Amino acid sequence: MPPRKRADAARNEQTLLAAAAEVFVRSGVDAPIREIAAEAGVGMGTIYRHFPTRADLVVAVYRHQVEACAEAGPELLSKEDSPQQALRQWVDLFVDFLVTKHGLANALQSDSSGFEQLHAYFLDRLGPVCGELLKASGIENIQPYELMRGIGNLCVGRGDDARYDPRRLIALLLDGLLGA
Amino acid sequence: MPPRKRADAARNEQTLLAAAAEVFVRSGVDAPIREIAAEAGVGMGTIYRHFPTRADLVVAVYRHQVEACAEAGPELLSKEDSPQQALRQWVDLFVDFLVTKHGLANALQSDSSGFEQLHAYFLDRLGPVCGELLKASGIENIQPYELMRGIGNLCVGRGDDARYDPRRLIALLLDGLLGA
DNA sequence: GAACGATACGGAGCACTGTTCCGCTTTGTC
DNA sequence: GACAAAGCGGAACAGTGCTCCGTATCGTTC
């Protein structure tokens, strides 16, 4: 059995997941390792010890994000002023997360079965959460899967095109759904 | 109108297209520019003058390959001992070509309309050629499009997996078609 | 709380790649 | 043959992935 992790190692792992997620959103999943290391305030060696390949890191961030996104749903519902506002904020998190998700396909070119497994996990975990937010917001004319997939599709393509801002379109979609 | 090209420039362009095609098959479309330059026996500057971006080069090779593949059909039919042998050799060329084709999608991320245009050209040009080879080989239970697409699908995914050899499967497919 | 492996960290250093730039060579023309 | 224009080659620079090992920190034992 593996020996227990040292406290600083465990801490760094969490720091790295958060930093990598942030950098992925800002610079894409192909961001230089150096940038992630700098964001996390650690050396490059530390990243390579925790995540030997880029795919390892992307997968770990992916799982971490799915989990965070899932937990954020109920939390936002209880914290925000209205369910509608909670939904909007949740969708914003979800879009951040999609950056990682899309990068995953490239990072995992050699192992597509692993990708499908993660994708199934993603749907199982987030579908119900999204469903709760929709129900609380009084939206009944769309299924969670359809909304998530629609948002996902709006986000495909390169992010460096100033003429196309997925978030703007998604906001409009929500306006439509919420009858704003 | 543009002035006529110098003879050496025109020669180099052809040399580069052939060299790049070869290197793409051997090392993938992400092969270092240096490797292509070495294969062609020219300097790197020459490549950049002819093809400012990697996408330019890949597109040019693509068109060149489609043309070569199309011309090879009738030629193989008249040269090889049997139509069946011509078909097998043609399919082999076709598979080489698919490496470039798959790389194209990545190289052209920003310009998907250009991709579809090229794809249409590809189908128009090669479909009939493939049809001729099939007819000459006495195969009537499959359409050119279906065969080409099947071969294409067998080739998706990274080439660096020793456990999966598309050419082996394609050979088996042809065995089945030809009743060997 | 001191001492001491074991564990983890940081970042310099190396290898490799894309891209530019400019002195030199080849070509076409007169 | 002479001369400009066009083209060529590859050194040089900048950015990146990845390794390696001296140093720092942690957890344990007394």
Could you explain how this protein is built, in words?
- The structure is a homodimer of 180-residue chains.
- Chain A is mainly α and 180 residues long.
- In chain A, helix 4 (54-79) runs antiparallel to helix 5 (83-107), helix 4 (54-79) packs parallel to helix 6 and helix 5 (83-107) runs antiparallel to helix 6.
- Chain A contains 8 helices and no strands.
- Chain A is 76% helix and 0% strand.
- The A-B interface holds A 109-110, 112, 157-158, 160-161 and B 109-110, 112, 157-158, 160-161.
- Chain A binds a DNA duplex (30 and 30 nucleotides) through residues 3, 5-9, 12, 32-34, 37, 42-46, 48-49, 54.
How is this fold's topology laid out?
The structure is a homodimer of 180-residue chains.
Chain A: H1 7-27, H2 33-40, H3 44-50, H4 54-79, H5 83-107, H6 112-136, H7 144-154, H8 166-178
Helix pairs in contact in A: 1-2, 1-4, 4-5, 4-6, 5-6, 5-8
Chain A binds a DNA duplex (30 and 30 nucleotides) through helix 1, helix 2 and helix 3.
